[in-house]
Design goal:
By secondary structure, the chain is mainly alpha-helical. The chain is built from 4 helices and no strands. It has a domain of 37 residues.
C-alpha cells in the first residue's frame, strides 16, 4: 500500500498544539503529582543492601561444627545446644560415613551379601 504524500493525513505539530494556560499547567502538574503519589513506593529506587563481611575463620569453623552436629542429630526432637565456653577449636571431630552409619546398616549389609551370593550362584550355573 502506497501513501499519497501530497495529502496530509495528520496535522503537523504546530497545527494541533494549543497554547497552555497557567491554570491548565497547574492542573496538569497537580494530576501528575497525584499519579506519582498513587504509585508510591513502586516509583522509589531499590535500596542498596550492604554486603555482609566474610566471617572470621573461627566463626566459620564453629558454624561448620554446628552444621555437622545438627546433621548427625537429625531427626531429633530437641535442638542441639550451643556451648558458649568453647573459645577455640583444636581439630574437627571425626564424622561417620553416612553410607555405612544409619539405622538399617545391618539389613543393608545382609541384603548386599545375599545379592552377591545370588549373582555368583547364577554365574556359576551358566558355565
Amino acid at each position: 500500500m502506497t501513501h499519497d504524500r501530497s495529502r496530509k493525513s495528520r496535522p503537523d505539530d504546530t497545527e494541533r498544539a494549543a497554547p497552555v494556560t497557567p491554570a491548565a499547567a497547574s492542573h496538569e502538574e497537580h494530576l501528575l503529582d497525584k499519579a506519582l503519589d498513587d504509585t508510591f513506593p513502586a516509583s522509589d529506587p531499590v535500596a542498596e543492601v550492604p554486603e555482609e563481611a566474610a566471617a572470621p575463620p573461627e566463626e566459620q569453623a564453629q558454624e561448620s561444627l554446628l552444621d555437622t552436629a545438627l546433621e548427625m542429630s537429625f531427626p531429633a526432637s530437641d535442638p542441639i545446644s550451643v556451648e558458649t565456653s568453647i573459645t577455640r577449636i583444636e581439630h574437627a571431630p571425626e564424622t561417620a560415613n553416612a553410607h555405612d552409619d544409619h539405622q538399617n546398616s545391618n539389613e543393608v549389609e545382609e541384603s548386599e551379601k545375599a545379592a552377591q551370593q545370588t549373582t555368583r550362584h547364577a554365574h556359576h550355573h551358566r558355565r
